[in-house]
# Entry
Amino acid sequence: RRSSVGLTRAASMSLRRQFSQNPPPPLRTGSETEEPLEKASQWARAPHEWITQRVDIVRGFVASDLSDYVMRFSMLLLGAYTLYLAWCESCKADYLAYLAGVGEALLDFVTLTRGSLSGATVAVCLSVWLLTVRWMRRPAPIYLIDFKTYRHCGVDGGDRDSTAGVPASQERFMAESRAALNRFGEPCFTEKSIEFQEKIMKTSGISEMSIFPESILPKSGQNPLGKDAEVLGLSMKGAREEAEAMMCKTVADLLAATGTAAEDIGIVIVNCSLFCPTPSLSAMLVNHFKMRSDCLTYNLGGMGCSAGGISIDLARRLLRGHEQKGSLALVVSTENITQNWYRGNDRGMLLQNTLFRCGAAAILLSNRGSDAGRARFKLLHTVRTHVGKDDLAYNSVIQEEDADGIRGVRLSKAIMQIAGDALKRNITALGPLVLPLKEQLKFFFNMVARTAARGKAGKPVKSLARSLVPLPLFRSLVNFTPDPADQPLPSPKPAARAAGKLSPPRPRPEKPEDPLLKALPPYVPDFTAAFEWICVHTGGRAVIDAMEKNLALPSHYLEPSRLSLYRYGNVSSASIWYELELIAENGNQCGAHRPDGNLPAVPRKLRRGDRVWQIAFGSGFKCNSVVWQCMRGS
# Structure
């Protein structure tokens, strides 16, 4: 057996003649494969010429850090040159004088001796050294060159070539649900389940433009799959077709819009929670676009609707690594519902059928300084919060079988409370990074005042706090807003009983709410002072309403999220990118594109320097935030 390294013209010509004379047989799969073991053994015994392509050799040298080798070699040369210059047999006294001068300079620097030029020289040298270390340790900026989402041709703004998927009206969805049969030919859903889904569909806030995969809703003219649906449509093949149609079209549009060749991509990250085949979805992209062999691929699964932020954070960590200088990262966020259409009657699992829709988003990131001029956004912060140590939070969104053995995703009734707790932890970590100093001080003083007024710091501190908080000087500082209707607390001392008369025992009254603490609620920072735009994951109308209420946002601030839910439904981890695309197109006028939308008094577009906050929730339970700065206005 011969072995050769390097590609020569003679070897390549020999290889081409060999394949032209004896072309390899076509690949066969499944039942078409004949005697695979015998063919493999024949192939192993036959002589082969192992050839390494020239492009791989060149890429291997380019991938190595040449600057590191140059610096090491330069240090060795400088060291040798220093020894050469200092070599002198009769200069012993000069060396001793030099060392004494260095020691005197260090002593003057340590003892703060004024007027010492040598001490000042030491300080300057240390300053230069620290500035050099600081400059070398600075994190590389991460730029978002561009992003694209899959938008069906039947949806406003959709590409006419985007034909995968079927826009579903509520009547069509309910008709398919009534016609759905299990493998025994029996209806999948009871009449109560049909009524429940119909009720949720009418109040979901989703329009009739959102799309389902063809495996669930066949196109017009095609017959329903009936009892063979799980074999013919809701299969691994159908799920692969859905993923490939959504992802590949979106990535192709992104590469075309940015003028990027697939061979230039160094990192590929794909997140899809409920569909994790082998080969992976990231491998599907590498195969479809013929990416290079040293491309780093990652496939994130099971992380829910917040996986989009996790993918961005992973790309950030990789791009800031020492080995990924001058690299491009492709991030794809999608969800697959072909094999996750619940066909049972558990109400906790039926919600997923009415909320989730098809969609995908592709994002191109770069750490190259040359891309700053064409980038649309710059990454500022990523904050991830995971409250999975709590059992209730961990089980709030879980994939499992129902009582009949039918697999689905169960949503807990306490999910809103769990999401609120995760949000509180996330914004507590995010606040110091983005909020103005004024808002941070208000939050801090409010927290101190509430702690002291409860008596957790001792009775003297409690008395002092309760006397200072109502004063006009401190009211605005701690967010004290008393209600005139509130009456002062009654005296805690009971009235004196008549002598010789004993009253019968009475039930202990409930402790009334403290008016001072009622007038001193926890301070919610003004996030509109930190962000011009906010993209909240479209988990449902209730999620968006709760975010607006808890963050005390103006009514128009979350209109991009409501419009995204209205047009596309819950597209899982890709939803925050649909919202950002709507912001880039419509600015703060998103409310004009849906019924009962809210509009601000002054129209505004996305401008250079604007900050965008993307926040999403996911199973586990997780809450993740990503903050961007706009570099090109719309």
Notes: The two ends are 62 Å apart (CA to CA).
